[in-house]
Amino acid sequence: MRVNLFKRPVLLGLASLALVGAGGAVVATADSGPGSDGDVTVWVPRSGDVAGVETRGFVVDLSVRINGNLAQTGSSLELTGPGAHQNIAPLPGNVGTGANADHFPGLVVLLSSTKIGAGAGQNLANEFNITGITDRPSANETEVWATWIIGAKGAFASLRDAAHPQPTEHSNLFVTAVKGTAPDVVTDANGDGRLDEKDLQQMGYDVIASPRKVSFEINRQP
Q1: Pairing between β-strand 207-219 and β-strand 50-51 as defined by DSSP bridges
Q2: Order of strands, edge to edge, in the sheet holding 59-66?
Q3: Maximum separation of any 2 CA atoms in the chain, in Å
Q4: 40, 43, 32, 34: which is closest to 73 by C-alpha?
Q5: What gap in Å lies between CA 64 and CA 132, rounded to an integer?
Q6: Which of 7, 191, 22 is nearest to 110 (CA)?
Q7: pLDDT, tens digit, for every residue of 75-108?
Q8: Percent above pLDDT 90 for the chain
Q9: pLDDT tens digits for 142-154?
Q10: Contact 144/73 with Cβ under 8 angstroms?
């Protein structure tokens, strides 16, 4: 079944502070209001950006502000990457698809153009290179920052070739946070043809940060 992450047309170029199964799913450009327990900001990509070089080199940079102390977020410091960059000092961590269970367990990140794993429903939180704690203004408020530079060609957009002659590929980013450890894969649990926070709730997860959604283009050109 083709999964669509929005019901209404996407309008590119709208300013949006936002976040992000197979089937080429997409996410609408929309800003949600604050969640009951936290809020999410996506710094890049911005709505309408044309990001990257030959499908890699674009950056997902986000912060999640949670109404809770550091222990409640489950987060810890991480500086990592694929291959030889994994699990080395000073802030070791592993890299791969699924939840970032060790360093930011509640984070959910989906890219509709994902070609690896479960496709559009694959949680990509564990692909992030950096997890830091950027603000602790009180005993009950914590901001966690996460950054990811995409290094693999063709993993999140098709390479440009005869079958894909267009200079860019459209993608939609969805980000939120849940209580506890997030799922490795988000499914269309409510059967409405899109992947979003409602599916997480249907799957039994408590969404604790307002979702953010960004629509942008991944550049296939050198």
Answers
A1: parallel
A2: 38-44, 59-66, 141-149, 130-138, 78-79
A3: 56
A4: 40
A5: 11
A6: 22
A7: 999 999 888 887 888 888 888 999 999 999 999 9
A8: 76
A9: 999 999 999 999 9
A10: yes
